[in-house]
């Protein structure tokens, strides 16, 4: 049996807001009976304020799928649609005091149903980036399709490359054999041969500076790393630029094909990984669109120290 | 902790008589059976006795045909790898689509190494087509490996007949009999089965002990090479206490065989009849006319297995599910998929597996709680119409996910 938190169990045994909402004006449906998880989220949205007045769920799935749906309805009730859209799958998992890594897809399903419901309310078409690949890395819930796409897009050659770009294989290492099989397959399609001892691509040596860097040196270094990604992104019709560094967060703009690309979050994760290797410190890479407006005004106080 | 244990195909409680038999081999009789001093004497004799106890349960002709291993998986791997090493010119393996992962993952790997794997399909009841099987047999086949009984549905395959056919075609035959040994009678000396796997913990012996039956005269290559234990066929100091325990468990299995086939079967039958009568939209999977007496696998449509297990567990009942969500993958059990059980049911299968430690009153307890568990989950399901208490018409159409 999975090691579920007490909150997961509580939401499973005593689900909140089960069933369809009467007079719902937003419906989001994701999943399917074939993949074993399906969620219909119904919302009653106040048309003047866009506040979610009521939310209900109907879920076909395991204990954590039902718990994730239940907690999602609790989180979003009372929020405006815009605020509700800021709820991430990590927020859903955190509200449940965590989910086993293999079950993170349940929280993803909750977020997707929410996006679908909001799109439905607004008369928009919603497209998910959910793929039905076999789960390869259970530690970070990464499936075969995503790994294959990253191997193609970034011309990855080794398991280490895959881990650097997707996090897959960075945990318990049980999936390394499966990752090798994917590499073998994609490299074969590319007319190459998989060589397990090949050097990781564009290996950037970790340079641990002995002396602390000045703000300017630090930002320059961060920019240097980000620049090193540009040729590869530009080749695919996209680009990236550094907008601001505040504390340990680097804000970037993804442009061209990278903006709105399904894989942009993976690209950002890859940049973040590389930055951490080079800078030997924890650095978060975040799209500039998420930069708090207040920080722009109070940039001096924001901790460049 | 659950009070009612109905997951005996996963593992069984160690019989107290088995524990009693084992204890001296941790304390007074600790000698290495390979030594020549007096500390080894009793130990070597105990292993010999255990060998003959296993021999009797499976009806082997010679006690030397019993090789002690660490588990069913080791026995399965030894059998298949031995067969391909002993016959390097044969590059094909025949098995079924519903084998235990101990076989399927092994042959998947061998496929990557260039072997051709024939995974025989099954019909909706989990049965094999023997005519198609016959056509696969050739001098290219190194080994046939077919389970005696399926761990999920209990469906029994005609392995005795299949071994005859393999033998006639000059092909080695192995059976993973982990679920069948001790539950149904067998007399290997009257068959053409060359190799057979046993796992101790499925028949009230401890975990970590298994047997590979190897018919005398079968070409063989050991998996573990080293010392001369098990006549050089499986090196490594004997797991003496567990071997003794397995021997005792085999002796007890012979004693209880009739009970398994009459009383245990009666409990199983009462449970499934009660469930099917009380709960709409559920059905029993597998070959109902040819099953282990202790196993039932019931598909509850429109709900998911792990959720059922969690509610059963809360009610003090332990069972198991072939549902994907208990394993972390997206696909439901490969056995259900092979039988072409529709997705509306395949995700909601629950296996109840009994042993001689269960009772009719436990069955009644399960029957008491099961209908409300199913109703609770169906109430939450988008595929169930709670107002009319029936499945929504055409579930795939009624539910329109934004992506398909």
From TrEMBL, chain A:
Natural source organism: Methylomonas methanica (strain DSM 25384 / MC09)
GO terms, molecular function: 2 iron, 2 sulfur cluster binding; iron ion binding
Cofactor remark: Binds 1 Fe cation per subunit.
The keyword Signal appears for this protein: no
Domain BFD-like [2Fe-2S]-binding: start-end pairs: 135-184
Residue intervals of the NIF system FeS cluster assembly NifU C-terminal domain: 222-286
UniProt name for this protein: Nitrogen fixation protein NifU
The entry's keywords: 2Fe-2S, Iron, Iron-sulfur, Metal-binding, Nitrogen fixation
Cofactor(s) it depends on: [2Fe-2S] cluster; Fe cation
Protein's job: May be involved in the formation or repair of [Fe-S] clusters present in iron-sulfur proteins.
Gene3D superfamilies found in the cross-reference section: 3.90.1010.10, BFD-like [2Fe-2S]-binding domain, Fe-S cluster assembly (FSCA)
PANTHER family: IRON-SULFUR CLUSTER ASSEMBLY ENZYME NIFU HOMOLOG
Family: Belongs to the NifU family.
Residues that coordinate or bind [2Fe-2S] cluster: 137, 139, 172, 175
Residue ranges annotated for the NIF system FeS cluster assembly NifU N-terminal domain, each copy included: 4-125
Gene Ontology annotations of biological process type: iron-sulfur cluster assembly
Residues reported to bind Fe cation: 35, 62, 106
Automatic annotation (TrEMBL), chain B:
Pfam family, one: Aminotran_5
PROSITE patterns xref list: AA_TRANSFER_CLASS_5
Keywords linked to the UniProt accession: Iron, Iron-sulfur, Metal-binding, Nitrogen fixation, Pyridoxal phosphate, Transferase
GO BP of this protein: amino acid metabolic process
GO MF annotation list: cysteine desulfurase activity; iron-sulfur cluster binding; metal ion binding; pyridoxal phosphate binding
Aminotransferase class V domain ranges (all copies): 4-365
Requisite cofactors: pyridoxal 5'-phosphate
UniProt catalytic activity: (sulfur carrier)-H + L-cysteine = (sulfur carrier)-SH + L-alanine
UniProt record similarity statement: Belongs to the class-V pyridoxal-phosphate-dependent aminotransferase family. NifS/IscS subfamily.
The protein's assembly and partners: Homodimer.
Stated role: Catalyzes the removal of elemental sulfur atoms from cysteine to produce alanine. Seems to participate in the biosynthesis of the nitrogenase metalloclusters by providing the inorganic sulfur required for the Fe-S core formation.
Name the UniProt record assigns to this protein: Cysteine desulfurase
Organism of derivation: Methylomonas methanica (strain DSM 25384 / MC09)
């Amino acid at each position: 049996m999975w090691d579920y938190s007490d909150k997961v169990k509580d939401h499973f045994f005593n689900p909140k807001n089960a069933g369809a909402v009467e007079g719902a004006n937003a419906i989001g449906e994701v999943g399917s009976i074939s993949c074993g998880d399906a969620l219909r989220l119904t919302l009653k949205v106040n048309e003047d304020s866009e506040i979610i007045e009521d939310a209900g769920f109907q879920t076909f799935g395991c204990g954590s799928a039902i718990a994730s749906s239940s907690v999602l309805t609790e989180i979003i009730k009372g929020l405006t649609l815009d605020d509700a859209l800021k709820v991430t799958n990590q927020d859903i998992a955190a509200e449940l005091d965590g989910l086993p890594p293999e079950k993170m897809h349940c929280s993803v399903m909750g977020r997707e149903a929410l996006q679908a419901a909001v799109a439905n309310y607004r008369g928009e078409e919603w497209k998910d980036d959910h793929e039905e690949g076999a789960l390869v890395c259970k530690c970070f819930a990464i499936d075969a399709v995503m790994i294959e796409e990253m191997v193609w897009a970034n011309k990855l050659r080794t398991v280490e490359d895959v881990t650097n770009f997707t996090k897959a294989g960075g945990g318990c290492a049980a999936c390394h054999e499966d990752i090798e099989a994917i590499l073998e397959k994609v490299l074969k399609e590319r007319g190459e041969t998989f060589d397990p001892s090949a050097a990781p691509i564009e290996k950037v040596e970790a340079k641990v500076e002995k002396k602390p860097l000045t703000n300017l040196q630090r930002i320059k270094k961060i920019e240097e790393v980000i620049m090193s990604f540009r040729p590869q992104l530009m080749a695919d019709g996209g680009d990236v630029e550094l907008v601001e560094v505040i504390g340990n967060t680097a804000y970037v703009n993804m442009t061209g094909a990278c903006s709105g690309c399904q894989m942009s979050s993976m690209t950002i994760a890859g940049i973040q990984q590389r930055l951490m290797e080079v800078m030997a410190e924890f650095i978060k890479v975040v799209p500039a669109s998420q930069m708090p407006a207040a920080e722009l005004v109070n940039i001096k106080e924001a901790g460049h120290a | 902790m659950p009070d009612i244990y109905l997951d005996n195909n996963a593992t069984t409680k160690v019989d107290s008589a088995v524990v009693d038999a084992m204890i001296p081999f941790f304390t007074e009789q600790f000698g290495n059976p390979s030594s020549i001093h007096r500390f080894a004497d009793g130990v070597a004799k105990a292993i010999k006795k255990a060998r003959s106890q296993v021999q009797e349960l499976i009806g082997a002709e010679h006690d030397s045909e019993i090789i002690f291993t660490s588990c069913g998986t080791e026995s399965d791997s030894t059998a298949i790898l031995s067969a391909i090493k002993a016959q390097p010119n044969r590059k094909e393996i025949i098995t079924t689509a519903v084998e235990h992962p101990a076989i399927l993952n092994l042959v998947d790997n061998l496929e990557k190494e260039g072997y051709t794997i024939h995974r025989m399909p099954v019909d909706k009841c989990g049965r094999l087509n023997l005519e198609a099987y016959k056509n696969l047999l050739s001098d290219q086949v190194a080994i046939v490996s077919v389970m005696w009984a399926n761990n999920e549905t209990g469906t029994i395959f005609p392995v005795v007949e299949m071994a005859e056919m393999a033998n006639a075609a000059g092909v080695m035959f192995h059976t993973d009999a982990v679920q069948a040994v001790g539950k149904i009678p067998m007399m290997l000396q009257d068959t053409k089965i060359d190799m057979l796997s046993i796992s101790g913990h499925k028949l009230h012996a401890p975990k970590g002990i298994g047997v590979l039956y190897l018919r005398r005269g079968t070409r063989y290559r050991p998996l573990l090479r080293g010392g001369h234990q098990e006549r050089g066929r499986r090196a490594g100091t004997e797991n003496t206490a567990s071997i003794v325990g397995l021997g005792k468990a085999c002796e007890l299995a012979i004693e209880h065989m009739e009970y398994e086939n009459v009383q245990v079967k009666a409990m199983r039958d009462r449970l499934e009849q009660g469930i099917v009568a009380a709960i709409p939209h559920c059905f029993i999977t597998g070959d109902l006319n040819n099953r282990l007496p202790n196993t039932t696998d019931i598909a509850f449509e429109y709900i998911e297995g792990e959720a059922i297990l969690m509610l059963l567990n809360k009610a003090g009942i332990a069972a198991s599910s072939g549902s994907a969500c208990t394993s972390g993958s997206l696909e439901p059990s490969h056995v259900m998929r092979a039988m072409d059980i529709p997705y509306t049911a395949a995700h909601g299968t629950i296996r109840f597996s009994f042993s001689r430690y269960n009772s009719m009153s436990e069955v009644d307890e399960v029957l008491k709680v099961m209908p409300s568990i199913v109703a609770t989950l169906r109430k939450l399901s988008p595929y169930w119409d709670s107002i009319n208490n029936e499945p929504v018409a055409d579930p795939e159409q009624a539910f329109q996910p934004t992506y398909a």
